[in-house]
Write a structure and sequence with these properties.
Blueprint: H1 3-12, E1 15-21, H2 28-38, H3 49-57, E2 67-73, H4 75-81, H5 83-100, E3 106-113, E4 116-119
Parallel strand pairs: 1-2, 2-3
Antiparallel strand pairs: 3-4
Amino acid sequence: MTDATLAEALAAGGWAYMELDLAGATAKPAFMDRCARALDLPDHFGRNWDALADCLTDLSWAPPVQGRLLVISGWREFALAVPNDWSMAQEVFAEAVDHWNGTATELKVVLALGGGVAVA
């Protein structure tokens, strides 16, 4: 399934599809910039872990949808370059997923492995 097909299928069900491409990102500032663009975060996003967590658990700034799927691709280079930051990113995403689990507007995050997708 292509990303376009996946996005179309999700849109038909009222879900938003977002892709965070981390290819070439080897430091936290690049990671935060990519998050800001890919997730269309609000202008007040502070580009730190607490601000990312706040934006992902308070989506009042985002258009209302039935749910959100975030696919993270190109993450291995970032994980190898800055393992502590990758660990923090995983924690922030996991806490956001837990926050929305079982609600009417769930958030799911998956890590793309090569040409496929695997649940994070």
